[in-house]
UniProtKB/TrEMBL annotation:
Pfam families with a match to the protein in the record: DEAD (PF00270), Helicase_C_2 (PF13307)
Protein name: DNA 5'-3' helicase
SMART domains per record: DEXDc (SM00487), HELICc2 (SM00491)
Region of interest called Disordered, as start-end residue ranges on this chain: 665-700
InterPro entries for this protein: ATP-dep_Helicase_C, DEAD/DEAH_box_helicase_dom, DinG/Rad3-like, Helic_SF1/SF2_ATP-bd_DinG/Rad3, Helicase_ATP-bd, P-loop_NTPase
Reactions performed catalytically: ATP + H2O = ADP + phosphate + H(+)
Cofactor: [4Fe-4S] cluster
Keywords on record: ATP-binding, Helicase, Hydrolase, Nucleotide-binding
SUPFAM superfamilies, per database record: P-loop containing nucleoside triphosphate hydrolases
Molecular function (Gene Ontology), one example: helicase activity
């Protein structure tokens, strides 16, 4: 094993390499991560926006991988953070550490199989998910949008090096993507005739020898729980966006069943089994049993549903036996797809019938699929303790891990409390931002509390006034997709072409976010995904709207089950579950506004309960310490001022071709490190001057003149130029300009 250089040297090299300055919180976090890795003790780190936490864990992770000869795994909740690490952070860290380590650290992006195109499916090795769509799309692109998408997918698949869906821009619908991808259960694995060319297999093979592997919570959870060994052997796991871990793990092990699923599985088995008719009838029986039931949690399985589930389980078991390939033959694609579908039906029906102690079973109605029976664990704490925290050091980090000044609530949900819990430490390294000067937290206290019927006219008028004052530049975070879509439609009608409004669901999230970031006049409205994963620094996002306190729905079966369980033990179920859920979401949503030291803006809460409810103080304390107000006139004036003096938007990272490891690549597939932006050399000019040791360029002088004309203040220029007040004030005086002192919102 190689000898690891000192952490201080590595961190200094990394920070210098990215053109930044070491921050106390970042240094403290990096040392804590290195200490946890060395001692084999788990660590929870709360690191506010601007701390540079990715650098703080990547540097010690690389150092450990270099010394131990094993990769470190980084798991994120969102695609946006994955892309940031692979496209921006790791390339710069690798370049900076190469001279110190003696070689350039390597990294790879690993995703689930559904994220990659399947070459065998493209070649006809699997049946189409929709009747003849691949062949239709191939013959006649004019049959409609779906056919056109499939044709484009085929053309792209012949050119891509990675096969990664995120490389495809603009994106395609989920229905089209299903025509060129397979699930892990449908995959033929080593028996596939194209396994040697498989994008997934080649990507995972390439990942075995890297220093840092980037993946997502769900993939990490499946790898841990199911023992598939999709990730290489490792002894360090970093979980970023760790506040999302419980929800992502829960979603990963939530199962569902519908009558249509059963009948679809029977159809896929087709003539390969003589018992598909019985299975099809069982699907109809289940659909009929579920149809009259009301939505919500089931405290017991009704007799009619139990009989139907037993019939589904038994017929599926019979078909499973029929689908085994004849002796001496291998499964083909059609048989593998059928087996995967029937296996899922059998396992889910059996699980629901078991009525496990911690499982919650509920029914909800889907507009397209009808009644859906779902089952999920009430708690994943013991599962995470046993499967995630065993035999490796885990570092969990987020901007929102502490609630009420303690990590205990989050620690309890992931199995780090109670008898037999592993050792762990908690650390809050704070944030370098001056939140009270950079942002306003505005509560529209004059609005009536939100009702069940969506936003009223008063709330819609409030949205229009705020967005107009901001000149667009708005990220709208809504509690439901219906609310986001309704608001988007109404605002489009009111704004016309003056202020474009994008809405989640109209394209891939990454594509929408790039559009939003590129055009400062644009607004982006959406729901849960946008609350936590959007990182748009600069002038394109100067207003964040939050339509209502994001409590779980009253009929949310998991939340109500957890709340009732806590109440039975003598606790406050509402505060422990609903208020805590809302506090985390509000903190994440408000955190979308201030992403760097020169960001300014307003977070507007359109729910007056943020001021009047008994739990309001708890929610307010969960937010960054922005300047609080209910003064609408002052807020509108601040937004208008910010709009009038806004600098150009921050340059947007465009999508790129990727190599097998997920790193950016040229069209020929050759991997290249991302270039690190460096400032141009100062031009020689008779008008250049030196003040306080700093050489002022013509361009910087012009920026000072523009700032004076725009009414910018001294503290804003300090952040912009990253120079001291004395240096800037001296040059302002030399140029004969007038720059006011004081904070933006004084």
């Amino acid at each position: 094993m190689a000898q690891r250089p000192a952490l201080d040297d590595l961190l200094h090299a990394a920070v210098s390499g990215v053109g930044g300055a070491e921050r106390p919180g970042q240094v403290e976090m990096a040392k804590a991560v290195a200490h946890a890795i060395d001692d084999g003790e788990h660590l929870l780190v709360q690191a506010g926006t601007g701390t540079g936490k990715s650098l703080a864990y990547l540097v010690p992770a690389v150092a450990h991988a270099f010394e131990a000869g094993k990769p470190a795994v980084v798991a994120t909740a969102t695609l946006a953070l994955q892309a940031q690490i692979v496209d921006r952070d790791m390339p710069r860290v690798a370049d900076a550490l190469a001279p110190v380590l003696g070689r350039r650290p390597t990294y790879a992006l690993v995703k689930g199989r559904r994220n990659y195109v399947c070459l065998n499916k493209l070649e006809g090795g699997f049946p189409d998910d929709e009747d003849g769509l691949l062949s239709v799309g191939q013959v006649d692109a004019a049959v409609g949008r779906l056919g056109q998408e499939v044709v484009r997918l085929r053309e792209w698949a012949g050119a891509t090096e990675s096969g990664d869906r995120d490389e495809l821009v603009p994106g395609v619908s989920e229905r089209a993507w299903r025509q060129v991808s397979v699930s892990a259960h449908e995959c033929m694995g080593g028996k596939c005739p194209l396994v040697a060319e498989c994008f997934v297999e080649r990507a995972r093979e390439a990942a075995k020898d890297v220093d840092v592997i980037v993946t997502n919570h769900s993939f990490m959870a499946i790898d841990s729980f199911e023992g598939r060994q999709m990730l290489p052997e490792h002894d360090v796991l970093v979980v970023d966006e760790a506040h999302e871990l419980v929800d992502r793990v829960t979603a990963t092990i939530t199962d569902e069943l519908t009558g249509t699923m059963v009948m679809s599985a029977a159809k896929k088995a087709g003539r390969m089994s003589e018992n598909t008719a019985a299975m099809d009838e069982a699907g109809e029986m289940l659909a009929q049993a579920l149809e009259p039931l009301e939505e919500g949690r089931m405290l017991g399985i009704p007799d009619s549903v139990g009989l139907a589930l037993a019939r589904v389980r038994d017929t599926a078991r019979t078909v499973q036996s029929d689908l085994k390939p004849p002796p001496g033959q291998e499964s083909d694609g059609a048989r593998q797809v059928a087996r995967a579908a029937v296996d899922e039906i059998h396992e889910n029906a059996e699980r629901i019938l078991e009525e496990r102690e911690l499982d919650v079973v509920w029914l909800n109605r889907d507009q397209r699929r009808g009644p859906v029976l779902r089952v999920a664990p009430m708690s994943v704490a013991m599962l995470v303790r046993d499967k995630v925290f065993e035999e490796r050091t885990v570092v969990l980090t987020s901007a929102t891990l502490e609630l009420g000044g303690t990590f205990d609530a989050v620690a309890g949900t992931i199995g780090l409390r109670g008898e037999g819990a592993p050792k762990w430490q908690g650390l809050d390294v704070g944030s370098p931002f001056d939140y009270p000067k950079q942002a306003i937290a505005y509560v529209a206290a004059h609005l009536p509390p939100p009702g069940r019927d969506g936003a009223g006219d008063d709330t819609l008028d409030e949205i229009e006034q705020l967005v107009r004052a901001a000149g667009g530049r708005t990220l709208g975070l809504f509690s439901s997709m219906r609310a986001a879509q309704t608001a988007a439609e109404i605002m489009r009608a009111r704004f016309g072409d003056d202020i474009p409004v994008l809405c989640q669901g109209e394209d891939q999230i990454t594509t929408l976010v790039r559009q939003f970031a590129r055009d400062p006049r644009t607004c982006l409205f959406g729901t849960l995904t946008l609350w936590q994963g959007v990182d748009v620094p600069g002038s394109s996002c100067q207003l964040v709207l939050i339509d209502r306190i994001p409590f779980p729905r009253p009929d949310d079966p998991l939340a109500s089950a957890r709340s009732q369980a806590i109440a039975r033990m003598g606790g406050n179920g509402f505060m422990a579950v609903s208020a805590t859920h809302a506090a985390l979401r509000l903190a994440q949503g408000a955190g979308r506004l201030v992403r760097r030291a020169d960001d300014r803006g307003v977070v507007a809460f359109l729910d007056s309960r943020m001021m009047t409810a008994r739990y309001a103080g708890f929610l307010q304390r969960s937010l960054p310490p922005f300047y609080p107000t209910t003064d609408k006139k002052m807020v509108l004036a601040a937004l208008a001022r910010l709009d009038s003096m806004a600098p150009p938007p921050v340059a947007v990272e465009e999508p790129a071709l990727r190599s097998l490891t997920g790193a950016r690549a040229d069209a020929d597939g050759t991997e290249h490190p991302r270039p690190v932006a460096t400032p141009p050399p100062a031009p020689v000019s008779s008008r250049s001057a030196v003040t306080s040791g700093h050489a002022w360029t013509d361009e910087q002088d012009e920026e000072l003149r523009d700032a004076a004309d725009a009414g910018m203040q001294l503290d804003e220029l300090v952040d912009h130029f990253e120079l001291s007040e004395e240096t800037i004030a001296a040059r302002v005086e030399q140029l004969g300009l007038t720059i006011a002192s004081g904070a933006l919102f004084d």
